[in-house]
Structure formats: C-alpha cells, structure tokens
C-alpha cells in the first residue's frame, strides 16, 4: 500500500519580478508503507526542497501530494500543522532541540500539541529514550541539549520524531554533524525502526548513508534521474532491479 504519493510535483521560487527558480521539475513516485527509502543528490539537486514538501513544511507550486490517503493540497495551514504533527516525524542534521528544555521535555513537546496527558507524555518520553539507546536515560533525560554529545542529541531527536507514533519518519542529513561511530548507531536505530514496520525516508548526499536503504531515488537539477531497489544478499547491499 502506498503511504505517500507524489504526482508531477513542481516547486518554483520567485526571486524577483522577472526571476524564477525551478527547484522541482515534475517529480512523481510513491513510497510504500513499511519501506526504507533514501533520496540522494548533490547540493542544489532539490532533495531538501522535496523533503520539505513531503513533510508538509512547504507547499508545492503544482502537482499532487497524497499522504496516508489524504490529499494535503486541500488543507489550510491549521489543518496542515495538525496533520503534520500526527502523521510525520522529523529528524534534522542540526538536531533542532530546544535549548532551555530537557531531553524529556523536548520529546514531550509534540505530544503537548497533540493533547496527550502529562503523565502519559512523561512515561512515553522515557520509554522512547530507552528505545533509542540513550545511556542512563533516568539521568540524562533531565539534561539540556548542551549537556549532551552530538550523538546523544540526535538520539533524543529520533525519540522526539517518534513521540506521536507517526506514519513516516523523514530524516534530513541526519548524520551530517556526527562522528563515524555516532552516525553508525543512528543508522542502526533507523534499521531497527524499519524492521519493526516504520516507514523511513532519509535525504542525504552521502552514499554510505543512502546505501543503508532498500530503495534509492536520485535527484539532479530538480528532476528524478534514477530509482533503484537494493537487494540484500549475504548481508551485503547490492544493486537490484530498476523501478519503472
């Protein structure tokens, strides 16, 4: 079942009275529920713009986006914000944690917007910290972001993305600010989440990160130039059949 569908999605930015920049030039594909997809491309390829549109953080200039059976184009801003909070979890390169809140409070924030009772928020936030493998969560859960390492902050960010049990996790260069041993652990978390049935979409320029997925979509100059399924054989990822 397709969880997310894009049909001829375009995005144009007006840079002046007579200057227009086409960031996306007719993107069409679908993402199946429970899949693990990477969207790759060099800087300026349109991949971050595409993530913002898939995540309902920005609107397409033209085309159709359907998420979980809902056409988001018809929603007003309030409806879109509510839908985004309940349906999509985000993980960003810069973590985007709120500095004056503890790790637990950062995880609870999406649940506050969703109307989850306080006791349930705290219970679930602690449960998520344990699930993402934060060391000593009973202690570090009360630390603020500046008291945590980069890897620990990203674990908190992943836990926050799961707060409302979203249908899909969108990760934008989630390992970009991490040392090798730290980003490997974050990718292991994504793999386990996907194995449990969660839909994962990772936007990255790094082949080492992108190749962790079972499908790779490549963008160049606002167009999709490649779409491949990756077959797993003998614990190694090798190119498989090309998607039509």
From TrEMBL:
**What Pfam family does this protein match (any one)?**
ABC_tran
Establish whether keyword Methyltransferase is in the entry.
no
| PROSITE patterns for the chain | ABC_TRANSPORTER_1 (PS00211), ABC_TRANSPORTER_2 (PS50893)
Output the Gene Ontology terms for molecular function.
ATP binding; ATP hydrolysis activity; transmembrane transporter activity
Signal peptide positions on this chain: none
Give the UniProt entry's GO cellular component terms: membrane protein complex
Q: Which ranges carry the ABC transporter domain?
A: 4-244
- What's the protein here called? ABC transporter ATP-binding protein
